[in-house]
Design a protein that fits this description.
about 130 residues, mainly beta, Metal Binding Protein, Guanine Nucleotide Exchange Factor, Chain A, three-stranded antiparallel beta sheet, Mss4-like_sf, metal ion binding, carbon-sulfur lyase activity, CENP-V/GFA, Gfa-like protein
Length: about 130
């Protein structure tokens, strides 16, 4: 299924030819550092293809030495972007311009989750910034 995505600044745009098999919320420390958040939210497709529509020259790739952890990001705004590792295509869910075609399938590495991530469902929620923020 074809989907499109982009970075935060809009200078990198891509199109995917991929059928996602998994949508993992990964709580490992590598994903926490790479996302700056409690977890990575990544879609996986074997044999999927990413086609860069614009800004490919701004794409920067990083592979953590001694591991399979890699990421790609916009060198202008830092947004995570699709990363191809051989036949495996990893797509940060937040980089898609529309909702992913599948729902999250699992949480991974819960033993590594951030200590401040527990009981988040009990916090108050707001549709916008709360008053006084």
């Amino acid at each position: 299924m074809e989907q499109q995505g982009s970075c935060l600044c809009g200078q990198v745009r891509y199109r995917l030819d991929a059928t996602f098999s998994h949508f993992y919320l990964c709580h490992c420390q590598h994903c926490q550092k790479g996302s700056g958040s409690a977890h990575g939210a990544n879609l996986f497709a074997m044999g999927g293809q990413v086609h860069w529509l614009q800004g490919e020259e701004l794409l920067h790739r990083f592979t953590l030495p001694g591991s399979r952890h890699g990421r790609a990001f916009c060198s202008n705004c830092g947004s995570p972007l699709p990363y191809q590792d051989g036949a495996l295509l990893l797509v940060p869910a937040g980089s898609l311009d529309q909702a992913p075609t599948i729902a999250p399938t699992a949480h991974l590495f819960l033993a590594s989750r951030a200590p401040w991530e527990h009981n988040l469902a009990a916090l108050p929620g707001f549709d916008q910034l709360p008053p006084g923020a």
